[in-house]
Amino acid sequence: MGKIVDVKFIVKEYTYEKPFHIANSIAAGSTNVEVQVFVENGAIGYGEAAPSYRVNGERVETFPTLEAFVKEQLVGVDVRNYRRIFDIMDGLRSASSVKAAVQFAVLDAFSVETGVPVYQLFGGAKDEIETDKTVGIDTVENMATEARKIFESGFKTIKIKVGEDLKKDIQVMEAIAEVTRGANYIVDANTGYTPKEAIYFAKALYSRGIDISVFEQPVKAEDIEGLKFVRYNSPFPVAADESARTRYDVLRLIKHDAVDFVNIKLMKSGISDALAIVEMANTAKIQLMIGCMSESSVGINQSVQFALGTGAFVFHDLDSHLMLLEDSFRGKFVQKGPRMLA
Amino acid sequence: MGKIVDVKFIVKEYTYEKPFHIANSIAAGSTNVEVQVFVENGAIGYGEAAPSYRVNGERVETFPTLEAFVKEQLVGVDVRNYRRIFDIMDGLRSASSVKAAVQFAVLDAFSVETGVPVYQLFGGAKDEIETDKTVGIDTVENMATEARKIFESGFKTIKIKVGEDLKKDIQVMEAIAEVTRGANYIVDANTGYTPKEAIYFAKALYSRGIDISVFEQPVKAEDIEGLKFVRYNSPFPVAADESARTRYDVLRLIKHDAVDFVNIKLMKSGISDALAIVEMANTAKIQLMIGCMSESSVGINQSVQFALGTGAFVFHDLDSHLMLLEDSFRGKFVQKGPRMLA
């Protein structure tokens, strides 16, 4: 039996190697909350909430105050009956990253109990995935240097943050393309463009012979018509990230034929909605990538297990733990450069 | 490790206690195929294919000839990596009940290996479900007698087969309602009505004060517009059964707002599509019931584990094993009258 006897929330402060700059947001580090689920037989499950005010509207200072509520809901429930806990946590819409952490910690405890790794509880679709690495917003020169460094260290896919300055963004892409021939590019505007700016940007790249694999969240989160407009007027696949937080968001995107790709992040959706989004996207033949907020290796482990287990993703953007300073690596997977192995 | 070393298909003949009559089809028994998956450590997983030519277009005489293909695909794959097997079996669109049996047998072997019951691999949402029991097409008098017998033996929900004779069907419902006050009714026309006949039928019941919980598949499988027309012109929830075989069928029903309910049957969808349909229906707020073809207790076990684990169903129509003659009960659940317990 695997009845839950205790739940603990532990606040953790992490610092980025260097400040991380995306469209209209700069972060020096991240305050995360580690969730530990204790089972009667001694098993402990680990999860991590890496909050995002910008995307989820959630505030990390509220998280410790939720420990008592979560504990009250979970104590006495068997981790093997994990869907009951998924359903309970679906109610915590004010803190989707806590929902994710608790749902995962329960699966992790179930995994420790049974000796089956979490990725095999999810189905064990893959033994290995490969992550991209991200170039934050900086000068044209620094971004090109950073991209070259990433490419030369073995990452085949480079994610590039744009969305603050259209003309400069085009120069950035030209400079990066020149020094990373053969790389795949995921370009993420983090809602920074208007629909017409986004199309201008995509056509400018196209006319310069620069191919991008995914054009992520070009426009505002709520602008579904805008996303669709960019999709139908851009030569590159368009992805929803900020527009695709819950299963309901994704059903709406499907009904509107608004996107080619969805970027699933456990911190937006939790495990429960992420599973639903995988099934819906597979059915609607929308491609998937998986991304992260500012998780440490504990939190990235959640997404690695999910991605290996479901095998659902064309691209993996799971690099926050490579950018945060950590005392030790705590993932239950093996990291070899861009490769992440079960 | 749980590598598959062998797969066996065994043809089994079952006879109904009495011939089972639904709209435009009478069956004296069923020829099913039991699937056994053998794992290197000695674990054996069991599944069962109960074919339906009428619904799936599949022919059971082809199934034994598929044993070699399935074996070739599965041998060497670890049952813990069950999604790989799900994906392989998704290709076998000519025999969806075989797909279901193989996918489940693999989960069953995984379950034996780890000591975790299959319903908990699915999430362990419920400890208990309750099935209805079905009244096949017969004379008005015999149907009322049968319904009363079912109700008096403790079944709270009665499924009634109609769809061959509109006027008589209304008389049947009047006669049954009289002798089973307080029962829930699922009325299944098995594609037997035109949209206007279906609406006539529903309004006739309504005007007589007879309430039905689900009005199942009133019109032809391909008539999605007809389903929607009945939905919007009938006081009762309308369900798709024959119209909802795959995940793609259900996405189309959702996009067209065509139904209130979907009847999932593993024999139509396999485990993989059934899981997708659960997620899509939950997202679109379409209600779910789970049904069966002519499974023995081995095959019904598949649906019981699925229903307990996902907890996704308002109604359970899992009674074929109660109507077939079997040497012994082989389900991995406890049957107590209408109750099915983990």
TrEMBL record, chains A, B:
Q: Where is the Mandelate racemase/muconate lactonizing enzyme C-terminal domain?
A: 140-237
What keywords tag this UniProt record?
Answer: Isomerase, Magnesium, Metal-binding
Active-site feature positions = 161 (proton acceptor), 265 (proton acceptor)
Q: Give the range the annotation lists for the signal sequence.
A: none
Q: Which cofactor does it need?
A: Mg(2+)
Q: Which InterPro entries match?
A: Dipeptide_epimerase, Enolase-like_C_sf, Enolase-like_N, Enolase_C-like, Mandelate_racemase_C, Mandelate_racemase_N_dom, MR_MLE-like
Say yes or no: keyword Isomerase present: yes
Q: Which SUPFAM superfamilies match?
A: Enolase C-terminal domain-like, Enolase N-terminal domain-like
Q: In the record, what terms sit under GO molecular function? A: metal ion binding; racemase and epimerase activity, acting on amino acids and derivatives
| Residues binding Mg(2+), per UniProt | 188, 216, 241
Please share the entry's free-text remark on the cofactor: Binds 1 Mg(2+) ion per subunit.
The EC number on file is 5.1.1.-
Out of the domains of life, which is the source? Bacteria
**Mind telling me which Gene3D superfamilies this protein's record contains?**
Enolase-like C-terminal domain, Enolase-like, N-terminal domain
Q: Does the keyword Isomerase apply?
A: yes
Tell me the NCBIfam families matching this sequence.
A_G_epim_Thtga
Give the family this protein belongs to, as stated in its UniProt record. Answer: Belongs to the mandelate racemase/muconate lactonizing enzyme family.
PANTHER family in UniProt: O-SUCCINYLBENZOATE SYNTHASE (PTHR48073:SF2), O-SUCCINYLBENZOATE SYNTHASE-RELATED (PTHR48073)
Protein name per its UniProtKB record: Dipeptide epimerase
